[in-house]
Amino acid sequence: MGLSSFFKNLFGSTKESVTELANNAESTFEQAKEAAAPYIEKAETLAEETIAKAKEASEPIIESATEYAHQAKEVVSEYAEKASDAISDVIETVKEKTAEVADDTRAIASETVVDASEPAIEEADKE
Questions:
Q1: Per its UniProt entry, which superkingdom is the organism in (predicted)?
Q2: Which pLDDT score, from 0 to 100, does residue 110 have?
Q3: pLDDT 10s digits, 37-52
């Protein structure tokens, strides 16, 4: 019996020690949470104020960027129209020049055919 009472005392006191440690840990955690609450609130307040200041400081910059973007859009669209007109003019000029060259080529080809056939006609006349 001495041995069983030894183990009962040993494990019984260990069980009580573990329970006491758990209670102390819970109490310490609650105290730490209470002590940290004001710091957490200060950090939240500081973060909110910083975000508000950043928004306030960035508003004029965002407005300026928006204004410049609109101006850039207007300028680009103006030049896009001019570029489109210029490209259309170039295309028309190319079409005209191509038509002229084609006409010239047809005339030269006709003259060449006529010139080439003349000696053949002359030779046929001689015989």
A1: Bacteria
A2: 63
A3: 888 888 888 989 988 8
Domain boundaries, the chain: 16-57, 59-100
Answer positive or negative: Cα dihedral of 86, 90, 91, 95: positive
End-to-end CA gap in the chain: 155
Rounded Cα distance between 95 and 120, Å, is: 38
CA distance 19 to 89: 94
Distance CA 79, CA 81 (A): 5
pTM: 0.36
How many alpha carbons lie under 13 Å from residue 51 in its C-beta half-sphere? 6
Residues across the chain: 127
Separation between Cα atoms, residue 127 and residue 118, nearest integer Å: 15
